[in-house]
Amino acid sequence: MGAGASEPTAEDNVQLASEMSNQELINAGMKTMDETDQAIERSKQVVHQTIEVGTQTAATLKGQTEQMGRIVNELDSIQFSIKKASQLVKEIGRQVATDKCIMLLLFLIVCGVIAIIVVKIVNPHNKDIRDIPGLAPPVPSRRLLYVRTGEHFD
Where does the pLDDT of residue 117 fall: very low under 50, low under 70, confident under 90, or very high at 90 and above? Predict the structure, then answer.
């Protein structure tokens, strides 16, 4: 208990105690001890409640720390997966670009061959157009040789 304005000072207590009888002093002392015991019990309850709250807080903090650890591990795993996926997307993009380039070159080659064939069909005697390498040139004077049954070559 603090020294408030309504509480008597030490001199007042001495003067008050000298005017009291022994029984009154005993009763006042007992009352003060009871009040002190109640204050101690309240303090013990507050300490007990504080310990319980601290224990609960520590348990909650431990659980949250473990949860944060799991979250960090999951984030690392997700980051690794995203990195791998990004690499795969880049690789697939390169393959697609390469495939498109190859398809374009094949298309150009096929178009060129078709154009040469069309020009040769439309104008077969044009001497400005060279023959396709690897193909036999057209021979207009080609004749079949055959042997008659009675003739022999010597």
Answer: confident
